[in-house]
Amino acid sequence: MSSPAVSRPLSGAAFAVLLLIALMMGAxxxxxxxxxxxxxxxxxxVAFRSGVTALAVAxxxxxxxxxxxxxxxxxxxxxxxxxxxxxxxxxxxxxVARLPVALALLAFNSYPLWTALWxxxxxRHRPDPRMxxxxxxxxxGLALALDVLGASSGLxxxxxxxxxxxxxxxxxTAAAVFGLALVVxxxxxxxxxxxxxxxxxxxxxxxxxxxGVAWQGGLHLPDAPAGWAGLMALTFLYGTxxxxxxxxxxxxxxxxxxxxxxxxxxxxxxxAWALLGQAIAPMQVAGGxxxxxxxxxxxxxxx
Length: 303
Hints:
- With 303 residues, this protein is mainly alpha-helical.
- It is globular.
- The longest helix has 32 residues, at 157-188.
- The protein has one domain (12-300).
- It has helices at residues 12-36, 42-63, 72-98, 101-108, 111-123, 129-146, 157-188, 194-215, 225-247, 264-276, 282-300.
- Helix 3 runs antiparallel to helix 4, helix 3 (72-98) packs antiparallel against helix 7 (157-188) and helix 6 packs antiparallel against helix 11 (282-300).
- It is built from eleven helices and no strands.
- InterPro entries: AA-Vitamin_Transporters, EamA_dom, EmrE-like.
């Protein structure tokens, strides 16, 4: 995985490519929900997605003749990062399987808070003042988006959380684990080429998912054409987005990711409404936009 950074102000082409990647990542989660609705389970989806992505990025590493140099620290850190991203992948797809896609991604978008917490706990870093100012705003937006009191759903808090509690738990766990993975990456493996790091991480995630598939008795493949479409789409979209990230963006002057890519939940909200019939209340939409805007503000502050 690569840490968010921008080397210089974005060109129009770079901005468009970043939006395309965000669209593809949001569409990947909508496609995953479609697959889950038709017989696919989480470990099967992660195995397909991660395996194909690992092969695509490994091919890119080979074609571009990226040197493979690992220190003893890297040999410890890379397996740890792979395990963390494996847990994050399973948890996030588990959230997508249980919640409206946009809400799962919004809860996951709390990962900057977890990143700051882990940096403080593990490496004794003081939180960025911008992060401290953003925390209450982001938490307010998340509370509105999740409808924590059950007002928008009309169910009341207890019944509402009975419906969404497990999904929110998976999404927040994914955010916490991803935050830790980012911190470990930044401090222990930032000097590993991003393509090599991603190929290693996705390969390990794919192997972990295959182990889960074997433990549960085999692949759970789609039971309808729509499920096959979802499984193929999520695999294509995820792998293509990562390949674009490492082939096109460097040529446009963008290193890694950018804050603009955090509009992914907005794309997911529109696509899930159009393709899956998922809709959330206006107040939840407002809360979601508040979360997205806050995360983008944090990302722009790192430029």
